[in-house]
Predict the structure of SH3 domain-containing C40 family peptidase.
Amino acid sequence: MNTKALIGILIFLLLITWNIKSFAKTAEATVTVNIRSSPSTSSKVLGIFPKGFKAQVLSSTVGWVKISFDGVVGYVKADYIKLTKDSSTSNAVKSSTNKKQVVSQIPTATVLKDNARVRSNMSTSSKILKTLSKGSKVYVLAREQNGWIKVKTLDGTVGYMAYYLLKMSTGLTTKISSRGGYDREAQVDYNDSLADRILGFAKKFLGVRYRYGGSSPSTGFDCSGFVQFVFRNFGISLERTAADMAATNGIKISPSELKPGDLVFFDTDGGRNYINHVGIYLGGGKYIHASSARGCVTISSLATKYNISFMMAKRVLR
């Protein structure tokens, strides 16, 4: 290959990289894909990038994109992700040249509990910006993937609230803004129950590998790590181990009372004297759990466990 051809190829590759860096900040997994240590299918698997989740794009090379997801930095195949364009620049240009008022259709929500907290970030440990009384109204700016809603209070405070603290309105409220600025992604159907949203979130991790002591989708889950992770993303705190969850969290219910979102507990050794496994009931006699036997998050039939290792069920949703 002559020098001119080589230079041409290098320029082409640089342009591709520049375009991706300039117009994309996030990558969304179209299937669950491995995060690898280098841009090669033979390199070490560092973690998992689950389908439907987003990650920060750090750089790119031919056929691969380097991402940062859940604390793991590595490479994923470009064929299995889609890049999200960064439209902030074009929006800034539009706002500077067009000062007309924009009419935005903004969903609203009603606060369900007194002393409901608006937080600075999507975490129960983040700063409390404001507390709201039952019946207060907020504007819904965005629905986040991890069980939080970005809101704006009537006095202008912007922050995050857990799903279960809010009841979404069925209609949209018209709001006039000089800059627009409201997230159009907020216009979604919020009619699903909290249990449905939790189960939908849990199913995103089907196929994520089992890892003893694991509590992260990128590196793997054990049974209680999976359950704790799912509920924590909806602002519900659970104990770390299956035994402690069974002893501390929720109220005990009979098998005949099981509803989707309840927790089911087992003694997988068959001795029926110690709880060492937990899953989330889906309904129809099925439950989702991180299974060491199958090596991943999977769905199983509750009937296969009843006579051997089923121990109890508890309800943590109100």
Observations:
- The radius of gyration is 23 Å.
